[in-house]
Design brief:
alpha+beta, disordered N terminus, Nucleotidyltransferase, domain 5, five-stranded antiparallel sheet, four-stranded mixed sheet
Length: about 375
């Protein structure tokens, strides 16, 4: 039967190298003696909330308490508390690794078991990634429901402005070759009104570097992903209907998402989004580009996580899922308008004056969608 054939230090190295983005091991990596009193006391305190894993034990199994680790997410108060990872000793002395999800409010997994000699590091890393993704989806859905009753914005939001935020998760960054694996949209004014998220099985493998970012792997796509043609047709028609009714498109870095969607439409002989809306070319508000036009382009300062740190109270919200990024982009836009309304209008007015060689005069006009679209153009 399988046996535990790795020393704790070697397995810790393997686990840390396999962890998804944003995960860390606590306490500090490779304590000199895992059985030391301070370490044991710290672990007992940390796993107290995870005691329910005991109810998942099978007859004859026991937890090897001197062999356990805590893994946690950055900003764990906003996603999940973490995972208690350790060793189970079964009847006859065989060993399994187990991972138990700590958050008692969202506990779909119970104990995840994996034989100790069957790639335990990759198995645990995969479990953490999938659990984080499922939990973030739950928390984003809950936040959106709550925000229906709690508007994000006061007077700075242009009256009557309804926006549709769109985001994709993909197999890579090549708009000609890579594929859409997840598509989400969020309708808001600015209070969220409707939203949808679609998993799409593109028929292409998810590369390891993309999986480390978006948490989508081939097994998830095969189990839950819809066919590309049918899913994209349904999603794009729903998006187009809202845009035809007057919603303004909002996309963080629209050149990538919209070009990739156009490529998918060509691949599957579908009508492109612009044609469905009835326009020659789609225009989109891009909060990232607006920020860059106001403050310049600085490497690492124009990503969704960086801008949530700047414009959203409390910092990052949600994880790198399509719906999570829609939610974050909406909050970035609301914060940008709240903090920089006058600067946005002044910049567009100045650009117009320079272009027409006239002088700025009088009071500034009220913030309007055309100001945002003007600053979003490259």
């Amino acid at each position: 039967m399988p046996t535990l054939d790795r020393q704790p230090e070697a397995l810790m190295d393997e686990l840390l190298n396999a962890l998804p983005n944003g995960w860390g091991c606590s306490p500090d990596y490779a304590p000199g003696d895992p059985s030391a009193e301070w370490y044991d006391q710290d672990m007992r305190e940390r796993v107290r909330a995870a005691r329910p894993q005991g109810v998942h034990l099978r007859p004859g199994e026991e937890i090897v308490h001197e062999w356990r680790l805590i893994f946690s997410r950055e900003e764990s108060d906003r996603t999940i508390d973490g995972a208690y990872v350790g060793v189970l000793r079964g009847p006859g002395g065989a060993h399994q690794f187990f991972a138990h999800y700590q958050n008692v409010d969202v506990d779909p997994a119970g104990v995840f078991r994996r034989w100790s000699d069957h790639a335990p590091a990759r198995g645990i890393a995969h479990w953490l990634q999938q659990t984080a993704r499922a939990t973030d989806t739950y928390l984003i859905e809950r936040a959106l429901v709550e925000e229906r009753q709690d508007p994000l914005q006061g007077s700075s939001w242009p009256p009557g402005l309804s926006v549709l935020v769109l985001d994709t998760e993909t197999t890579g960054t090549d708009t000609d070759q890579d594929r859409v694996a997840e598509l989400a949209w969020l309708l808001a004014d600015p209070t969220p009104r409707q939203w949808r998220s679609y998993l799409i099985n593109p028929g292409a493998s998810m590369p390891a570097d993309a999986y480390a970012v978006n948490g989508i792997d081939d097994s998830l796509l095969h189990a839950e992903g819809g066919s590309p043609a049918q899913t994209l047709e349904h999603a794009l028609e729903a998006i187009a209907e809202h845009l035809r009714q007057g919603a303004v498109l909002v996309v963080a870095n629209p050149a990538f998402d919209l070009e990739l969607l156009d490529a998918e439409c060509r691949r599957h002989s579908l009508r492109p989004l612009a044609t469905r809306v009835g326009v020659e070319r789609l225009q989109a508000i891009d909060p990232i580009r607006i920020h860059q036009r106001l403050f310049g382009v600085r490497k690492g300062h124009s990503t969704i996580p960086a801008l949530t740190e700047r414009y959203v109270a409390g910092g990052p919200i949600g994880s790198h899922t399509a719906l999570g990024d829609c939610h974050a982009t909406l909050h970035i836009l609301a914060g940008l308008l709240r903090q920089e309304e006058e600067r946005i209008v002044r910049r567009v007015t100045l650009d117009d004056a320079c272009r027409t060689r006239t002088h700025m005069s009088g009071s500034l006009p009220r913030l309007a969608p055309h100001h945002l679209l003007a600053l979003s153009r490259s």
